[in-house]
Specification:
four-stranded antiparallel beta sheet, 7 helices, 8 strands, disordered N terminus
Amino acid sequence: MAGLFLSDNNTKISRTESGWIQGKSMYRRAATLALIALALPVGAAPVPGQGTWETTLQGRLPATPGGTDYQAYYDTVLDVTWVADTSLPVTHSFGLPVSPVGVQNPPAGGIGWTGRMNYPTAIEWIGRLNEARWLGAGDWRLPTLAPVNDNEFVDCPTPPPPPPGVTTDPGQGLCFAGVNDRGYNVGAPGTPFAGSTQSELGHLFYITLGNLAFFDIEGGAGLDGLGQPGWGLSNTGPFKSGTAIGQLAMLADIFWTSTEYEFNDELIWYFGMATGGHSYRQKDRDHRVWAVRDGDIALIPVPAAAWLFGSALMVIGWLRRRPLP
């Protein structure tokens, strides 16, 4: 049986995809908890005092001049800029088809109503985002993931089938202690690589927003199917969604990275915002996209055309003030 990396329709995932929780009843509990998360109010979060976001995320490019409705946030630790709208592909599809409201599966080569899309479509959408020079930048990308040990990826060994009547396997703690790239608590406080920046989404989840994985670092809390107290995306910080369903889906969804699984280039690493876990999936699966770029977007020079336009306005103003001969 698979762990709490839920499938697209919250059904069971085969053993080949992950292998940390045993027993059908745990899937039912996990699905129920995911539905509870989806029932949270749209305004759930931000949580003041949780994580570092209040000092390490700096708002950029307000939609309203002088306002606080920022369209991007600069992460001073990762030195990257995140788009503020986690459902940007839905509100700005850039010509890609979007499924009607209520239709979760995206159309061919398109985007689902909650923002899900397969990996090739994710790459296509990022390309169109850059062609449009969103917020003046043409270098947006998917989040990256590198080995937490700064050397090589360490997978989570799939445990053998449990004895009859036993719902957990010995040695599962290897996947919870933050030392395996495929697992939970990677970079979380209290782990050997606490504060690691190797996973941009992981650092955002555990450090910047101060959230907790479904399992604690010993693996004890979570094997009961209920999770450790306070698990999940309890704090979304200043990030919001342009759609109500998108904001709710963020609480229990999976986001693509740009990193291929080194032993099979048909698999891509992802991060699960619902449970705080890293794993990998086939490229034809549908997950969400969060655009990010290197550096502070506030440092991007104003395009030459904008400077020319501004200069023209200044000349016109000067001519109007000039006395007639």
